[in-house]
Amino acid sequence: MESENSTLIASQLRTVLARLNRKLRKLSPSNTVLSQTERSVLVLLEQHDYMLSAELAGIEKITPQSMGALLNHLDELKLISKTASESDRRKIHISLSESGKQMLEQVRHERDEWLSKALAEACTPQEQLILKEAIGPLTKLVNY
After folding, report:
1. What's the pLDDT score for residue 89?
2. Fold of 33-96
3. What is the distance of C-alpha 117 from the center of its chain?
4. Residues 26-47: tens digit of each pLDDT
5. What are the domain boundaries of the chain?
6. Distance CA 72, CA 80 (A)
7. Structure confidence by residue, pLDDT tens digits, 103-140
8. Residue 53's closest CA among 6, 90, 99?
9. Cβ(77)–Cβ(30) under 8 Å?
10. Tell me: the pLDDT tens digits for 33-82?
């Protein structure tokens, strides 16, 4: 019985979280020009001082050629910076530009604003408390 209950919860949770994630992505006007992989690359660059194209391609599980095209697009949009390595001129360090940082902040702000409004208007104070208390267990699932 416990296994069936876990499976049902898993199915319902997966569905609702996927829908919420899609909705948050759609609701961010600042983010509409980027693919999911481009957004992911910007977040990776935010977490590191710099990365190499090959490292990014490996993490995103795409070909080096596809990553090159993706990075060229982000460079055209001025969201990244490319700098030759001091120790090996063949290597190019990719980092998040100031414009890229501002875009990520704007996207997060837009999503937070929408979610805050939705929580206030669609959920009772008790439901908001339940959601607040669910953050811990959801974080455990993400980190599993």
Report:
1. 82
2. Arc Repressor Mutant, subunit A (1.10.10)
3. 21
4. 887 766 778 889 999 999 999 9
5. 1-32+98-144, 33-96
6. 9
7. 999 989 999 999 999 999 999 999 999 999 999 999 99
8. 90
9. no
10. 788 899 999 999 999 999 999 999 999 999 999 999 999 999 999 999 99
The DSSP annotation for the chain comes to -HHHHHHHHHHHHHHHHHHHHHHHHHT-GGGTTS-HHHHHHHHHHHHSS-EEHHHHHHHHT--HHHHHHHHHHHHHTT-EEEEE-SS-TT-EEEEE-HHHHHHHHHHHHHHHHHHHHHHHHHS-HHHHHHHHHHHHHHHHHHH-
Taking CA 12 as the corner, what is the angle to CA 131 and CA 34, rounded to the nearest 5 degrees? 80
Amino acid making up residue 140: K
Please give the Cα distance from 89 to 93 (Å, whole number).
Answer: 10
Distance (Å, whole) CA 17 – CA 26? 14
